[in-house]
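From the methods appendix. Each design record in this collection lists the tokenized structure first, followed by the designed amino acid sequence. Records were kept in a plain field format so they could be parsed without special tools. The example shown here is representative of the layout used throughout.

RECORD:
FOLD TOKENS (96 positions):
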């Protein structure tokens, strides 16, 4: 994802345009991995393989989102991990 894309993105749930970007991995041209966060509705959207995954809650896969949060938890603010929607990390089952 190119950083300029943030200028035109909006939360698909509440339509907020003031989104926060957390970059985990990038090269000179694109963000390879990261997280987009909407503080208005408390939703997070992963960036995987340069693609922002900004799907409505009913189309998201809980196990994939929780694996993403777990793998990157040292880079994500605690509030997103514990209160982020649609699936906070506290939903993760032990051993998964």
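DESIGN:
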């Amino acid at each position: 994802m190119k950083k300029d894309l943030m200028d035109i993105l909006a939360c698909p749930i509440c339509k907020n345009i003031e989104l926060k970007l957390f970059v985990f991995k990038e090269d000179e041209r694109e963000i390879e991995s990261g997280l987009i966060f909407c503080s208005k509705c408390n939703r997070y959207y992963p960036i995987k393989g340069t693609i922002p995954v900004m799907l409505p809650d009913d189309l998201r896969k809980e196990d994939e989102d929780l694996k993403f949060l777990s793998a990157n938890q040292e880079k994500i603010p605690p509030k997103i991990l514990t209160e982020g929607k649609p699936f906070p990390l506290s939903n993760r089952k032990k051993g998964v």
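APPENDIX NOTE: The radius of gyration is 13 Å.
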